[in-house]
Design a protein that fits this description.
By secondary structure, this protein is mainly α. The protein contains five helices and no strands.
Length: 126
């Protein structure tokens, strides 16, 4: 580890966000169909490939892989937490947006978010 860099491992990251409330802006999350969940899964595969092939601090890689795992876990849940998935997908894309080699992964997330009817916030502040 380089001096000045801190890695905070969050082994219970998925469970910390379980209590999310509906979006304060009034956005309503609806049930997703198979093509929407497939698009999210495919975007996560692209993200994981990008993250593991990039020159990235290992603690950042671990955090992103953990976020990917949380979204995948929700996809396989009988009653997925859409707000949680939306938050993590936008967070993943926001974390990768400055990396040119992750552009395709960010666009895959954007496409999946759009197909799922989730709000896209990861480009805010650019």
């Amino acid at each position: 580890m380089q001096a000045g860099l801190f890695c905070f491992v969050r082994p219970v990251l998925c469970t910390l966000w379980r209590g999310l409330r509906p979006s304060p802006n009034g956005f309503t999350f609806t049930l997703m169909d198979g093509s929407q969940t497939a698009a999210i899964h495919q975007a996560l595969v692209e993200v994981q490939h990008a993250v593991t092939s990039m020159t990235f601090p290992s603690c950042d890689q671990e955090d992103l892989i953990e976020a990917i795992d949380c979204v995948e876990s929700e996809l396989h849940n009988g009653h997925p937490n859409f707000a949680l998935m939306c938050r993590f997908l936008n967070s993943i894309a926001r974390s990768l947006r400055a990396q040119p080699e992750a552009r395709d992964a960010c666009l895959a997330i954007e496409d999946a978010i759009g197909k799922a009817g989730m709000p896209s916030t990861w480009q805010s502040g650019i």
